[in-house]
Design brief:
It is built from 7 helices and no strands. 7% of the residues are buried.
């Protein structure tokens, strides 16, 4: 009886995980389609007017594919952490990398990412990462509603 109940619970959970993955893929596809059709670059910048910590990462990785490493560092200096993280993620379930090591790497990754983001955001000479909330959709909508 317990085994059948556990099996049923696992099947229901598996179905929900699959449907959540489908929903995630559909949302991602909608965002990418909106970007292509509407010409929106970064959805976070479009909505808030503030660049996200990963700003320039895609362009940096495209530069790496073209073997332009100097250009990649200009777009995002932490581009090299993504392949390292991918290796850690791939081996996280194996016995080669402990959970503690994986978590430690993630914390270091997050702290380094935040430090670089704040430096880039506060650097007045940096034209790639900037905070311009007046350009964001949210503030523009609030301003329109407020001025009516």
């Amino acid at each position: 009886m317990k085994n059948k109940l556990m099996r049923d619970i696992c099947q229901v959970a598996d179905r929900h995980v699959r449907s959540a993955n489908v929903v995630f893929v559909l949302i991602l596809a909608a965002v990418l389609l909106a970007q292509m059709v509407l010409g929106i670059g970064c959805p976070i910048h479009f909505i808030t007017g503030i660049n996200c910590p990963g700003c320039g990462m895609s362009r940096a990785l495209f530069r790496v594919l073209q073997l332009d490493f100097a250009g990649a560092f200009l777009f995002h200096p932490l581009w090299w952490l993504l392949p390292v993280w991918a290796l850690f993620w791939f081996f996280r379930e194996s016995t080669r990398i402990s959970r503690r090591t994986y978590d430690g790497f993630l914390w270091c990754f997050a702290i380094l990412f935040l430090a670089v983001y704040l430096f880039r955001l506060l650097d007045p000479a940096n034209s790639l990462v900037r905070a311009a909330p007046r350009e964001g959709l949210i503030l523009r909508l609030i301003t329109r509603v407020w001025n009516r």
